[in-house]
Amino acid sequence: MRMTNGRLRARGHEPLQGGQAIRRALAVLRTLAVGGERGVPLAEVVQATSLARPTVHRIVHVLIEEGIVERSDRTGNYVVGRQVPELALARPSRSPLLIAAEPHLAAVSAQLGDTLFLTLRTGLDTLCVARRIGSYPIQVLSIEVGVRRPLGVSSAGVAILAAMPAPEARKIVLANETRFGAYRTDTATVLGQIQLARRRGYNLRDVGLVQGTKSLSAWIRTPDGQPAAAITLSAIRNRLSPRRAIEVADVLLATARAIEAATPREAS
After folding, report:
1. Which tens digit of pLDDT belongs to each residue from 220-235?
2. N or C: which terminal CB in the chain sees fewer CB atoms within 10 Å?
3. At what angle do helices 187-200 and 166-175 cross, to 10 degrees?
4. What residues does 130 pair with on adjacent strands?
5. Phi–psi pair at 187, nearest 5 degrees
6. Mean pLDDT of 10-28
7. Given a cut of 80, is residue 107 above it in pLDDT?
8. Is 122 within 8 Å of 157 (Cβ atoms)?
9. Cβ neighbours for 190, distance < 8 A, ≥ 6 positions apart
10. Rounded to the nearest 5 degrees, what angle is found at the Cα of 34, between the Cα atoms of 30 and 37?
């Protein structure tokens, strides 16, 4: 069957248009995931995705119709729908990197006495996948398991970006630029933190996400060399004096290398 050039051009653009719509919907869904149970108001979704308000409104309501998003009757915020965890049951196996890391997290948390976090990179975000609470009487529980944040906001995110080639890290930071305002940071600050972490070989944050705390993160690569995760220790400020910070950094760097060695190649 013959087609006119116009119809050929239109058909040739269909995959691109369809791909763009899917990417926009995923951007909205990832933004809602950051909000957790609290949810995210529509205005914040618009700001975080840089999409027009009518576009976001249309995407959200289609996702609601499909059971992927829900709207809170109490707050009016939008949250990830209950159908998403049900879909995840189709692949219940845990990350090989998480499996490799678990015994090391437990051992190092017991050794150092402070809370440890394992954070994975997922697209333009970080996702906290494990937390081990130490034995010291005052623990810093700054992030819950399952919390997602833009790359560059947390200590772990800066560490992961520092392990990347500078142009790639800068591209990600610029892609997240509109999202930084909600976390009281900006592009210049994040780029400066990345540069400093790259020089140190790890990331030390003198002001943690919780006031009066510090955090230290070491990046973890997959067997093919891609920065994929970070191990982070968070503690009250007087627990990370300059001398102890160096000691903790040595332990976390050794732990990161041990996790890399224990991660199977299929995790790449």
Report:
1. 999 889 999 999 999 9
2. N
3. 150
4. 118
5. -60, -45
6. 66
7. yes
8. no
9. 152, 153, 158, 161, 173, 180
10. 115
